[in-house]
Write a structure and sequence with these properties.
Layout (H helix, E strand, L loop, with lengths): L19 H12 L4 H8 L3 H14 L2 E4 L15 E4 L1 H5 L6 H27 L1 H13 L5 H11 L4 E6 L3 E6 L5 H6 L2 H14 L4 E4 L8 E6 L18 H6 L7 H10 L1
Antiparallel strand pairs: 1-2, 3-4, 4-6, 5-6
Helix pairs in contact: 1-3, 2-3, 5-9, 6-7, 6-9
């Protein structure tokens, strides 16, 4: 059942009739991994109420608890668990017809070959250039990275911008509406990365993708004064040394963590 299809229950306060559990899940989608205390503060709910809904989401299989990344805990006592949406949880918000889309892409690959798939991916990524021009004109006070975040958010990616020491900025997409399709057809990720670099007029580095098992899609937008030390293979989540240092534990994919363990 989609979250938006659940019966609406009246809530007190300015949030109207949106179910509390849906608000908690949506906050995890938009704001990323969070503790119960952070969710309670963000949603203006009691910690007990948030924990009850988190327990329900975990029981449903739409959220899971993780240990906080090393060094994130401050103070005494046991570190608080961090909650994240599972793939099933992301699917609850995903209105894309994934199965149909994958079948269509497979048919395109079988009948038109690799070039046809790449041309389709390029055409789909045109929303980035078109949206960038429109948002830039309407909101000149936004930085280029902030414009991109709004363009992606307007298209269902729940994007934001974070500052990185030395390297530059990082475009974070907490949700990808085509992640299941992109898992089989990484050309979609590659076309998006190329389009981002094109509108910014610089090389950008895709550090991680939801399609390949990462918790969030991240794209490094380098400061012109600092060149990245290693090229990335767009769409695969391959990291340069500078980019790897900027990823949190929650953003690392399972295959990256296995590689780290094997090397230690």
């Amino acid at each position: 059942m989609k979250f938006d299809e659940q019966p609406q229950r009246a809530l007190s306060g300015h949030e109207g009739d949106e179910p509390t559990r849906q608000r908690v899940a949506r906050s995890l989608l938009v704001d990323g991994p969070s503790t119960a205390a952070e969710l309670a503060d963000r949603l203006e709910l009691t910690p007990a109420a948030v924990r009850r809904h988190l327990d329900q989401l975990v029981e449903m299989g739409t959220a899971e608890a993780r240990s906080p990344r090393p060094g994130a805990h401050r103070g005494r006592g046991r570190p608080a668990k961090v909650f994240v949406l599972t793939d099933a949880g992301r699917d609850s918000f995903d209105q894309q017809y994934d199965d149909l889309a994958v079948q269509a892409m497979r048919f395109l690959a079988e009948t038109g070959g690799e070039q046809a798939v790449r041309e389709f991916a390029h055409r789909r990524a045109l929303f980035i250039k078109q949206g960038f021009e429109k948002v830039s004109a309407a909101s000149p006070e936004l930085s280029p990275a902030q414009v991109l975040a709004q363009v992606f958010s307007d298209n269902g990616y729940a994007a934001s911008v974070t500052q990185l020491p030395v390297v530059g900025e990082q475009l974070c997409q907490q949700h990808c509406p085509v992640s299941h399709v992109a898992h089989e057809f990484p050309q979609l990720c590659e076309a998006e990365t190329a389009a981002i670099g094109e509108v910014l007029g610089t090389h950008v580095q895709r550090l991680a993708t939801i399609a390949h098992g990462d918790g969030v899609c991240t794209t490094c937008i380098p400061d012109p004064a600092h060149a990245l030390d290693q090229q990335a293979d767009p769409g695969t989540g391959t990291l340069g040394r500078a980019g790897a240092a900027s990823l949190t534990e929650h953003e690392k994919s399972p295959h990256q963590e296995k590689e780290r363990v094997s090397q230690s």
